[in-house]
Write a structure and sequence with these properties.
It contains 6 helices and 45 strands. The protein is 6% helix and 54% strand. By secondary structure, it is mainly beta. The relative contact order is 0.16. Strands 5, 19, 20, 21, 22, 23, 24, 25 and 27 form a 9-stranded antiparallel beta sheet that branches. The longest helix has 10 residues.
Length: 690
């Protein structure tokens, strides 16, 4: 009898509930607290929202006790100087007119046409067609406002008015000056009869020089006549040429210049104080402006010196001086500043210690022809001297405290970063600057924070310069307040993204600045100071879109040996969740062919479904329901996995709305789950083998 087979085959099917649980976010934090030092900065607010708060005490400490010292003369480096070049100047627009009769023009026609027109003079007949013919050269009157000039800009127009009884079909005019320089060629399409007109214009920019008399050479004129209609014909009928200019400027030449301002300038003269003092308003008991003017312009020049922030008896101080051309020799003068009050806060770039000046340079016309050139100039030099102050509004000290530039290296393993892609962003981070200030005058805070990213890009926090509060009087010598930088006034959200910056660089300064309201009495004591702390608040409120962790893992899946083997027909994993958290996870497992390294299969499932949120990003509890996911692992996938040497594992994270909106994490969020498994296996083994 044959020996019975000793091989045994078992084909069990199983279905098990393998896990059940509830996860409370608050308990999760408690369990993590002993492992994560950073959780000591995590706060749970009254609404159960979570926020990280980091503090940097004594970030800024600034004191001022210097005494004001004002120089007797400024600028201390020597007189301030400026130069005014005449450049392009206005001249009066001109207008000249030239009338050309049909009889005069016909002298340039052929004999037959001229004889025919003469025979029809004074009759009512059919006007004969003719042309195109040349129409002769016709000189207009001289323009009295200039002799010869080179134009810088403007236009020259020529209007042709047709007083003939027939339409002019074509007309071409070459406009020249009396030196035979061509100004331009103007072409006209039909010009209506009996008073019809057409205008053409020429750009005069950088043209010339041209003389003051123009000639119109009619190079071509034609008409189709009046047939079949009869019209009154007269050789005295005229074409009228009106030559005119618009908005002309000249760069050189001989001309009559109208009164005009050709030079403006302004300057801010600094007191050049050696210390940190800042003066907002000052009264001078004595003082003067000493100036020297040198003019190379062949006209009388009026210099107007305006001190826009300086008043005497309530009136703005203005000084005028007329300089007659004297061959380019210097002319000196003095402007007295005694008993003047000056507001030194008008420069927006440095609103203290600045004495503003404005200047106007005007040509005073002699109503006669003068010769000018584009580079004719006037130089002006001045300084303020003999300064003796009668009053200074407060002891206006300045101390500028700069934060030492520093940086924070964000050390993250490049290998980890290479495995993560997608976007992560906190929604409402805040930086607060808490300070105490006992300066009796305004102070501005300028904070610079930049994030440098691995791709070379730089994101600036974009914090604007902010004036901090200051005490109103010495009876209340200290104020305390907070400056807040948030997503509405900075780019803070662009700094807190994933992947994070590799370095955060920060610097800044606190600078005392005056208000332009000179009625406020400012004060400083030798104990005045500013103290400031920095607080960073990061609510756990964020958005994440397709934040993906990907890794490639080496695997070796070989269930059994030569005496024992397991064949898995199928496995189903049942994941039943009630997710009270506003984010989901998707999982992908991709085996790679051991020969080609190409993907040969994919297992994908959603591990968690995100809870719905309201407009504030808070989970809507009553809409959270159970959700079931079935993970099918078939035999084909397991065979591909067993044959693979490597597998790509991806975990994809999204907040509610597929990462489009920020969500808020509360400490009372709850996650419940049940996990079961169903499968069918075939076990093969030989009990006789050792």
């Amino acid at each position: 009898m044959d020996t019975l087979s000793t091989e045994i085959e078992l084909n069990p099917a199983i279905a098990l509930k393998i896990a059940h649980g509830t996860l409370d976010f608050r308990n999760l934090l408690d369990s993590l607290g002993s492992d994560l030092d950073s959780l000591q900065d995590l706060n749970i607010l009254q609404d159960n929202s979570l926020v990280f708060i980091f503090r940097e005490d004594s970030m800024l400490s600034f004191e001022v006790s210097d005494i004001i010292e004002i120089p007797e003369t400024f600028p201390q480096s020597g007189p301030e100087s400026m130069n005014f070049t005449i450049g392009a100047l206005d001249i009066d627009d001109f207008f000249v007119s030239k009338s050309i009769s049909l009889g005069d023009m016909s002298q340039s026609f052929d004999a037959a046409t001229r004889t025919l027109l003469e025979s029809l003079d004074g009759t009512i007949s059919i006007f004969p067609p003719f042309g195109p013919f040349a129409g002769g050269e016709h000189t207009a009157d001289s323009i009295p406002s200039y002799g010869s000039v080179k134009f810088s800009s403007g236009t020259l127009g020529l209007t042709v008015t047709n007083n003939w009884p027939v339409e002019i079909t074509t007309l071409s005019i070459t406009l020249k000056d009396d030196n035979d320089s061509i100004v331009g060629v103007l072409n006209y399409l039909p010009i209506a009869e009996n008073g019809g007109s057409e205008t053409r214009k020429l750009d005069l920019a950088d043209r010339g020089p041209f003389s003051s008399q123009f000639r119109a050479e009619i190079t071509s004129i034609s008409t189709i006549g009046s047939a079949p209609n009869t019209v009154p014909i007269s050789l005295s009928d005229e074409l009228v040429l009106d030559i005119f200019s618009e908005n002309i400027k000249i760069s050189s030449g001989t001309t009559i210049l109208p009164d005009q301002i050709f030079g403006y300038d302004s300057t801010m003269v600094d007191f050049d104080l050696d210390g940190p003092e800042k003066i907002y308003e000052i009264m001078l008991e004595t003082g003067r402006v000493d100036y020297t003017v040198t003019s190379n312009i062949q006209e009388e020049i009026r210099i107007k010196i305006i001190l826009p922030a300086t008043k005497v008896n309530g009136d703005t101080l203005v000084f005028e001086e007329s300089i007659t051309y004297n061959g380019g020799n210097p002319t000196s003068g003095t402007l007295i500043l005694d008993n003047s009050i000056t507001d030194l806060t008008t420069d927006p770039l440095k609103p203290f210690n600045i004495f503003p000046f404005k200047f106007e340079v005007e040509i005073v016309s002699s109503d006669s022809l003068v010769t000018i050139y584009f580079d004719d100039d006037l130089s002006f030099e001045f300084s303020v001297s003999n300064i003796d102050f009668a009053y200074i509004e407060g002891y206006l000290g300045k101390q500028e405290e700069s934060f030492d530039p520093d940086s924070l290296e964000i050390e993250m393993d490049d290998e980890i970063l290479d495995k993560i892609s997608g976007a992560f962003q906190f929604a409402n981070p805040i930086i607060r600057f808490n300070y105490k200030n006992s300066f009796g005058l305004p102070v501005s805070l300028d904070l610079s924070v930049e994030g440098e990213f691995n791709n070379g890009s730089i994101v600036d926090l974009g914090a604007s310069v902010i004036d901090i509060q200051y005490p109103a009087d010495t009876l209340n010598p200290e104020v305390a307040d907070t400056i807040e930088f948030n997503k509405d006034n900075t780019n803070i959200e662009d700094l807190l993204v994933f992947p994070p910056p590799v370095k955060i660089c920060y610097s800044g300064s606190a600078t005392i600045n005056p208000l332009e309201d000179t009625t406020v009495i400012n004060f400083i004591t030798n104990k005045s100071k500013i103290e400031g702390d920095l607080e960073i608040e990061v609510p756990i409120e964020f958005s994440a879109g397709n934040l993906t962790f990907q890794d490639t893992m080496e695997i070796e899946l070989d269930i059994g040996d030569e005496d024992f083997s397991v064949d898995i027909e199928f496995v189903k994993i049942y994941v039943n969740t009630k997710n009270g958290f506003p984010f989901d996870f998707r999982f992908q497992m991709i085996p790679l062919d051991s020969i080609t390294s190409a993907p040969c299969d994919t297992l994908e499932f959603t591990f968690l479904s995100a809870a719905p949120v309201d407009g504030n990003g808070v989970v809507i509890e009553e809409q959270v329901d159970w959700n079931q996911e079935i993970i099918d692992i078939d035999q084909e996938f397991l065979e591909n996995l067993e044959k693979s040497g490597q597998v790509i594992v991806k975990v994809i994270f999204n907040t509610t709305g597929n990462g489009s909106d920020p969500v808020k994490i509360l400490s009372d969020y709850i996650f419940e789950f049940n996990i079961g498994i169903e499968g069918k296996f075939k076990f093969n083994f030989n009990p006789d083998e050792d």
